[in-house]
Design a protein that fits this description.
Largest sheet of chain B: 4 strands, antiparallel
Number of strands of chain B: 8
CATH class of the largest domain in chain B: Mainly Alpha
Strand content of chain B: 5-15%
CATH architecture of the largest domain in chain C: 3-Layer(aba) Sandwich
CATH class of the largest domain in chain C: Alpha Beta
Strand content of chain C: 15-25%
Number of domains of chain C: 2
CATH architecture of the largest domain in chain B: Orthogonal Bundle
Structural class of chain B: alpha+beta
Strand order of the largest sheet of chain B: 1-2-3-8
Distance between the termini of chain B: 64 Å
Distance between the termini of chain C: 71 Å
CATH topology of the largest domain in chain C: D-Maltodextrin-Binding Protein, domain 2
Largest interface: A-B, 52 and 53 residues
Radius of gyration of chain B: 28 Å
Strand order of the largest sheet of chain C: 10-9-11-8-12
Oligomer: heterotrimer
Radius of gyration of chain C: 23 Å
CATH topology of the largest domain in chain B: MetI-like fold
């Protein structure tokens, strides 16, 4: 009886119509011809342990390459004896997130304040050094996944409030603010990031007084922030538009001014609605970071491109790219899943 | 003193509501002016002290560099302006190809993801989650430097159906050689006009009498019949010029026929894959966004399953799908600027790359490039807005 | 209320002025600034074996890198006190102009336009180069006259593209340029068979050849189609710094001419030859004074970095994968018929 039911379910799911049956069979065939060779290449025939290219003789992927260069891919050209500083900073970050997940509401508030108000400065100090006996590590030595994270985290922190302000500006009744915001948003949304980065990296010094200088990394972070803030503004605007007039009127009737009503009534609701959009913007920002290659910053993809041309490690581009793809995929997938979780949690609390 | 001043300022604001409107706006204008002035003064002095020339006169100068692939006639003896045009057309070409395939793939996987077959929806989910979460630049590198590199050298080309030759230097297909092509084009124009008038006539007929003619079938019939008549009547001929393998020294190259360079293939391919994942999500949202009641209502007034899909579901779903899809088209066009990484001669590589290096006119060239992308973006927006308006609900 | 307005205006103008005068102080005194910050800011390529290349430990090496190391040895006493900035061809000049770096040592061709036109100064030549072509050995091409109807890989942002067109135009050949942003991409494309030939500076060809899967399958054609003297660049108008970089380079060339190497320099300290005494900063010579350095500066360069011949052999010489023959080329010392000639250290 049970068996019969299973069979019925099976037929219903996979072979209900001729088209469905065709789909099922072709997908199985597709999996059959692609998965075994891929799995062989990645796992079964691959070499994991070794110290030079000639250790790879098994015919599969040569993960030795990633293994040997791992530290460079993660930390870039950061001096080896100072790497503990990066680890410490990310350790603090991980620890506070961990505590946050288990703490009660009151402690959580302090952790949030710490994360957004104090931690950025602590981490910047750790990365850059220059006091308390820590030698200076110039930004030109930053690289790898570490640089990817620095760029994306700081750009995310800055583009969020800027995007909110721009979205509010676009809905403002004051024409100068409105049209400035519209112009700003549409300009950044209309041009490719690569030209913006090129401007920030190569042309911007022309616009500063002769001899003065702004660190290249800072210029790049500013450029990415402005660019993504325009996208963020459009997302937030969508949320603001979804708030009914009644909410605005209610806030006004309580005697709240423009800023007060926005910060305590309108924005919290609007932002909750557009969590998926915000996450998508963050993900897009994260995925855009390899473009900093145009100004010569070596984030993780740049480090892999550097490594794959080292005479001792030629012909291993695919392994490097697969590794980078895995890293990007893991981060982006985690972000999108986390946003889904957040969305659901906020939904039920409503 | 400062706190006193601020206090009196606040009181003043409360007493003068109009000032409250004008003052912050004036302040913003003032700051913008200062910023613009500051940067332009610096740029002026810097360029003067470094002896950098300014102006757009360079656009008429000889470019003196060659470009691999061009839709219009181009040679290094022509001007920088012409080189710009070549780059722009190449950007448009790859964007159009990318948009075309991204739309097809996007709709396919978007619909597949909603399939009741777990294997099919699983495949679609896997496809979407894989390609949307990996940096586009990485995907371009991967297809160009890891996958397309596996193609054989010209002497052992992959031959598909005896007329497509794929090798590492590109994909070669036959070139069309038309006789009396103009008659055929006129015939085609006539066909489209005919179809248009026929459709507007049946629409009128339907509005008046309520009769529904088999519009689509008749339109297809016209589309097939009229050109066929034209072809026989005016002796239109199509011949193919096949690419041939030529050898000089020990180097093999295909000549004749049309060359599709591998850079174009890799770029169009990765742009399509990447963008299709986003379009698939738009499509899914669009189809899920239609109320089930709509379908039931349509069925209850006796529409067939086919009619429900064509007249009820698709028009409404499109209305939800089009605005976000437009954004994806814009993104694809802008992302095509990554071409520079793999030697596809788009506007960024040709104009903001080579031309910029040769002339040193960074500010002019980057401004022109940005302005061009802005114009492209706005054009696509306007086009899609027009289409969107056409299909949106007209409330009576 | 007027007060408040004034306050705000005043504040914004103040902020504006503050922003505009920031950073002007160190502009014309790179030497002092370098001594103070304790490292030399050096712009290099994004990876060109033999000239500037990083290994898996993140250590840079090459001929171009050694120029910066020499400057660091002279100014700071330690050749390792250099911070490297890898730069693309596109951004190298603006990086120097803006002060991101203080020495640009990135296989940069010395041309009139660059020396006079963009506020930079070339201090010398550390490598004489010229544009050439590389082909596969089995292509059967043995001279540039066989290059008709070929696909040519090269990179943008240099004079290479123009030279290439001039060459093919003058020969009446047809060709198809495949132009990449970065040298690494050119190599990958050429190596996989996308192009029939690869053109760039000959030293670059030799260096990039080591990045091919089978370097032995490729050969550089004998002809040279252009003149490319490569050398370090500094900002115009800072003559103290310019002198330090120029003489750091010259002293290495000079040391080779007089047979002073990093190995024998200590035994040479007691030499009677006055020219050598000056080169190695032996007792009594005061070569450092005019440069704003101590008198041991040249000793440190030779001891820590080596003379020109040593550097050449170490990075691009016969025993390296790059194997650029020095004998008979313009890079040989003038005594051996080359063009390498340094003004005397005295």
């Amino acid at each position: 009886m049970m068996k019969n039911l299973n069979l019925l379910w099976f037929k219903e799911k996979f072979f209900s119509t001729p088209l469905n049956a065709f789909l099922t069979i072709s997908i199985i065939y597709l999996g059959f011809i692609t998965i075994p060779p891929l799995a062989n290449w990645i796992f079964f025939d691959a070499t994991f342990i070794g110290s030079k290219k000639s250790d790879c003789v098994s015919g599969g992927a040569c993960w030795v390459f990633v293994n040997v260069w791992f530290e460079r891919f993660i930390y870039g050209l950061y001096p080896a004896e100072e790497i503990w500083r990066i680890n410490l900073a990310f350790g603090i970050l991980a620890a506070s997130i961990l505590v946050y997940n288990f703490a009660n509401q009151k402690i959580r508030k302090y952790i949030l304040i710490f994360l957004f108000g104090v931690f950025p400065f602590i981490s910047l100090f750790l990365f850059h050094g220059g006091a308390l006996g820590l030698p200076v590590v110039d930004t030109r030595e930053w690289g790898g996944l570490f640089l990817t994270l620095v760029i994306s985290v700081f750009a995310i922190i800055f583009c969020f409030p800027l995007g909110i302000i721009l979205a509010m500006g676009r809905r403002s009744t004051l024409p100068v603010f409105k049209y400035f915001s519209i112009g700003f948003i549409e300009f950044w949304r209309g041009v490719p990031l690569i030209t913006v980065l090129f401007m920030a990296g190569v042309m911007f010094p022309l616009f500063l007084p002769a001899g003065s200088n702004l660190d290249k990394l800072i210029r790049v972070i500013i450029a990415i922030t402005l660019f993504e803030a325009a996208y963020m503004a459009e997302v937030v605007r969508g949320g603001l538009q979804a708030i009914t007039r009644g909410q605005y009127d209610a806030a006004k009737s309580l005697g709240m001014g423009y800023w007060k009503s926005h910060f305590f009534i309108i924005l919290p609701q609007a932002l909750k609605i557009v969590i998926p959009g915000i996450t998508n913007t963050f993900i897009a920002l994260f995925k855009d970071t390899p473009l900093v290659f145009v100004v010569g910053l070596l984030e993780i993809l740049g480090m892999i491109n550097l490594a794959k041309t080292n005479p001792n490690w030629l012909g291993l581009a695919t392994e490097g790219y697969v590794f980078a793809a895995f890293v990007y995929w893991a981060f982006c997938f985690w972000m999108s899943r986390y946003s889904l979780k957040l969305e659901n949690r906020l939904k039920t609390s409503n | 003193m400062i706190s006193n001043a601020l206090k009196s300022f606040n009181i003043f604001l409360e007493n003068n509501p109009r000032f409250k409107v004008y003052f912050p706006q004036g302040l913003l204008i003032f700051f913008l002016l200062i910023v613009v002035l500051y940067f332009s003064i610096n740029a002026g002095t810097n360029m003067a002290s470094r002896g950098i020339e300014t102006g757009f006169g360079f656009l008429n100068k000889k470019a003196q560099f060659d470009i691999q692939f061009s839709l219009i006639e181009y040679d290094g003896g022509m001007s920088y302006g012409r080189a710009y045009l070549v780059g722009l057309l190449n950007t448009i070409l790859v964007s159009v190809i990318g948009i075309f395939f991204a739309t097809i793939l996007g709709f396919f996987f978007g619909i597949l993801r909603l399939s009741s077959n777990p294997l099919a929806s699983g495949l679609a989910t896997g496809y979407i989650e894989l390609f949307r979460n990996i940096s586009l630049l990485l995907q371009i590198f991967f297809w160009y430097f890891a996958v397309l590199r596996l193609l054989p050298p010209p002497e052992n080309s992959l031959i598909i159906f005896d007329f497509v030759f794929a090798n590492i230097k590109g994909i070669y297909i036959p070139r069309f050689d038309w006789t009396n092509l103009d008659y055929f084009l006129y015939g085609l124009l006539f066909t489209f006009l005919l179809i248009y008038f026929f459709n507007s006539y049946t629409k009128k007929l339907r509005n008046i009498t309520g009769k529904q003619l088999p519009n689509i079938s008749i339109s297809f019939l016209i589309l097939f019949l009229v050109p066929t008549i034209v072809i026989f009547l005016f002796n239109v001929k199509l011949e193919f010029i096949y690419p041939e393998l030529k050898m000089s020294k020990n180097i093999y190259n295909y000549e004749g026929g049309v060359t599709i360079i591998p850079e174009l293939i890799a770029l169009a391919f990765s742009l399509s894959l990447y963008t299709s994942t986003f379009i698939a999500e738009c499509v899914r949202a669009g189809i899920l966004g239609i109320d089930k009641g709509q379908k039931e209502a349509a069925a209850s007034i006796g529409l067939t399953k086919n009619q429900i899909l064509r007249l009820i579901v698709i028009p409404q779903a499109l209305r939800i799908i089009i605005p976000p899809t437009t954004n994806q088209y814009l993104n694809l066009t802008k992302n095509s600027s990554l071409a520079a990484a793999i030697a596809y001669p788009d506007i960024v590589l040709v104009f903001a790359g080579t031309a910029l290096m040769q002339t040193g006119r960074a500010i002019e060239i980057v401004s022109i490039t940005m302005f061009t992308y802005l114009t492209l973006s706005i054009s696509i927006s306007i086009l899609m807005n027009w289409y969107n308006k056409r299909i949106s609900i007209t409330e009576r | 209320m007027k007060k408040a307005l004034k306050l705000i205006c005043g504040f914004s103008i103040f902020a504006f002025l503050l922003a505009s005068c920031g950073g002007d102080s160190s502009k014309n005194n790179t030497l002092e600034a370098t001594k103070k910050q304790g490292f030399v800011k050096c712009g290099v390529s994004q990876g060109l074996p033999g000239f500037s290349n990083a290994d898996e430990a993140g250590k840079w090496s090459g001929i171009d890198v050694d120029v910066c190391r020499a400057v660091a040895a002279a100014v700071l006493g330690d050749a390792s006190k250099v911070k490297y900035t890898p730069l693309s061809a596109k951004e190298r000049f603006t990086a120097l102009q803006a002060g991101d770096i203080d020495v640009l040592s990135r296989n940069t061709t010395w041309t009139l336009e660059r020396d006079a036109g963009i506020g930079l100064t070339f201090v010398g030549v550390n490598f004489y180069d010229g544009q050439g072509f590389m082909v596969r050995k089995n292509s059967g091409i043995t001279s540039v006259n066989g290059l008709n109807n070929t696909k040519v890989c090269t990179n943008t942002g240099t004079t290479t593209e123009l030279n290439m067109r001039d060459f093919f135009k003058s020969k009446g050949f047809s060709y198809e340029p495949v132009v990449f942003e970065k040298a690494d991409e050119v190599v990958a494309a050429y190596d996989s068979g996308r192009c029939d030939t690869y053109t760039t500076d000959k030293s670059g060809l030799a260096a990039q050849r080591t990045k091919m899967k089978n370097p032995d399958e490729h050969v550089v054609l004998p002809e040279t189609i252009s003149k490319e003297p490569l050398g370090p660049v500094v900002r115009e108008g800072d003559s103290a710094w310019e002198d330090v970089v120029r003489w750091s380079l010259n002293v290495m060339i000079e040391a080779e001419e007089y047979g002073v190497t990093s190995k024998n320099i200590d035994s040479m300290m007691s030499t009677e030859n006055p020219a050598i005494q000056r080169i190695i900063g032996a007792e009594g010579s005061k070569t450092g004074e005019g440069l704003g350095l101590d008198n041991k500066w040249s000793y440190r360069i030779i001891k820590q970095v080596g003379n020109y011949g040593e550097i050449y052999e170490k990075h691009v010489g016969a025993n390296t994968p790059i194997a650029l023959p020095r004998k008979g080329s313009a890079n040989a010392s003038w005594r051996n018929g080359g063009a390498l000639y340094a003004p005397p250290v005295r």
